[in-house]
Amino acid sequence: MFWLRVVRGFLIMANEPRDNVPLEEPMFILENGEMCRNPTEVKMSQIVLPCHANYCGELSAGQLLKWMDSTACLSAERHAGCSCITASVDDIHFITTIGVGQVVNITAKVNRAFTSSMEVGILVSCEDLFSNRQWKVCHAFATFVARRTEAGKVQLKQVIPRTQAEQMEYSLAAERRRMRLIHAEIINDLLSSCSSQTGDERLDYQDAVPAERTRVESVELVLPPHANHQVSTFGGQIMAWMENVATISASRLCNAHPTLRSIDMFHFRGPSHIGDRLVLKAIVNNAFKKSMEVGVCAEAYQGGEPLRHINTAFMTFEVLDNDRKPCTLPRIRPEPVDGKRRFQEAIARKKIRLDRKYIISCKQSEVPLSVPWDPSNQMYLSYNNVSALKMLAARNNWVLTSEKNKVSLYTLEENQTLCFKVETHVAVAAEQVFLLLSDLRRRKAWDHHYQYVKLITDSDEDDTIYRVVTPSVTKRGKVQDFILLASRRRPCDSGDPYLIALRSVTLPSYPPTEDYNRGEVLCAGFSIWEEENTFTKISYYNQATPGVLPYISTDIAGLSSSFYCTFASCSAFLQENKESLASLPTSTL
């Protein structure tokens, strides 16, 4: 995983830039002055011994996965008050290695609870006892499900976020859950599309390693030490066994010790119990220039019963040279039929993996203003769009700049970035506000900045792409146009707002032209909170970019109150049109 071949001294130097980065949120202070911390938080610290390490003196990836799963399970059970099982684990990207003699620190806490499942955030860091330095190893999210009790299905209590960071994770957990629920369907569609497009390619397999050589099959007997107190096999133990056969498979291709770099999101399809024979199969699906994908399958049986599918995972490995650089790998010759399908699907997964890592994993400040949109990254752009708005809304250090007739303008300056928020209340139901503001084509009825709006494509019921034309910011300048992705979200539960998130994307069919200045929106949108049945709070956010700032700069400077006029028009628009929604058939809404 984080298993780079390196001596401890070099490892310390390699991680020096991250030494001063806070690895966990400190304890918070309640109003009565009492120090407190998240009640679901569980910490584990383990010193890495030779029995935990591979022959390179690095912590075994499988051992770390077991520790991570155990810590997360204890956090989930602390919140649920009953036993829990691992349902899924999101993508894991391993940043660095942990050597013998160093300390692994794992912190897990429940970010949000749903009906009977909950998301647990897991942070892994490494500590060198001799230099007193720490650095981040990986950050993961796992989903746990509370087991049924004699009283029936467990209804989990809600998590109460108490800090800005906890509020942010609480809000983002709902978006991550949405992505998990649609992940498998979208991935299958993309794989089918990519396979059909590339299936007839003639590839040169001369001097390539036969995929059959990398095939590994191993069986494990599940014993009591491998199971929890409910006699179910630990999810971390299954992951460790899968990592073991995947490493063997990767080694057979490269004839060297491979380094596990990432594990794709995976789901446990069913439980395993004490007495099961767990059959683990692995094979290299494809070898790219500097990395390879290994597919791993876990199946279980007892006695003469048929095999039960437990899990399938895809792991990415590299081989590092003495300078810590990835080596060039041999090509692989796939097996006929299924092998060729896996070979092509691995190419598609690599593209999806890069999109996912590029769009989701990097910080918001590292994402370019306008990201190319296509069906393969649609889900991740939508996630990034909504997540960025949620993170902006979770900020608690907004400064009131001006207020007029209950329309308030707030600003937030941070890291050389200026953001603004406009807030007002309307006597219209939240769902009606959401429906009226969701269609940007109707915005020109109340926002004079929206001169022309064209719907380009309805990606799905939650995501739409528009072209918006706005006035010139100078008297003799060109008008501006924007290509905007609008992502809509209804509340996950009664405590959540309706959301309409906006960000710029690029489309090959709509390139910039000489007649328009192409503007960019990094993060903008509405957060709509239902305060009473027919009384709603509307908050509009915008992370100002050079294309947007001129429209609001005079308001921020106190030289104008055009923001009030715009949102007064918005309130009037909502009041005038709320009745029109009531007369529409439900299917049109």
Features:
globular; 9 helices; 31% strand; Thiol Ester Dehydrase, Chain A; 6-stranded antiparallel beta sheet; 27 strands; transit peptide; hydrolase; Alpha-D-Glucose-1,6-Bisphosphate, Chain A, domain 4; lipid metabolism; disordered N terminus; disordered C terminus; repeat; HOTDOG_ACOT; alpha+beta
Write the layout of secondary structure elements.
Layout: H1 8-14, E1 28-29, E2 35-36, E3 42-47, H2 61-80, E4 84-89, E5 92-93, E6 103-113, E7 117-128, E8 133-146, H3 164-198, E9 209-210, E10 216-221, H4 235-254, E11 259-263, E12 266-267, E13 277-287, E14 292-301, E15 308-318, E16 332-333, H5 338-361, E17 371-372, H6 378-393, E18 399-404, E19 407-414, E20 417-426, H7 430-438, E21 452-458, E22 463-470, E23 480-489, E24 498-506, E25 517-518, E26 524-532, E27 535-543, H8 549-556, H9 562-582
Parallel strand pairs: 9-16, 17-24, 23-25
Antiparallel strand pairs: 1-2, 3-6, 4-8, 4-12, 5-11, 6-7, 7-8, 10-13, 11-15, 13-14, 14-15, 18-19, 19-20, 20-27, 21-22, 22-23, 23-24, 24-26, 26-27
Helix pairs in contact: 2-4, 3-5, 3-6, 5-6, 7-9
Can you put this structure into words, describing what you see?
With 589 residues, the chain is α+β, with helices and mostly antiparallel strands. The protein has 3 domains: 37-179, Hotdog Thioesterase (Thiol Ester Dehydrase, Chain A), CATH 3.10.129; 209-364, Hotdog Thioesterase (Thiol Ester Dehydrase, Chain A), CATH 3.10.129.10; 367-577, 2-Layer Sandwich (Alpha-D-Glucose-1,6-Bisphosphate, Chain A, domain 4), CATH 3.30.530. 27% of the residues lie in helices and 31% in strands. The radius of gyration is 26 Å and the shape is globular. Mean pLDDT is 85; it is low at 1-22 and 584-589. One of its GO terms (molecular function) is carboxylic ester hydrolase activity. Pathway: Lipid metabolism; fatty acid metabolism.
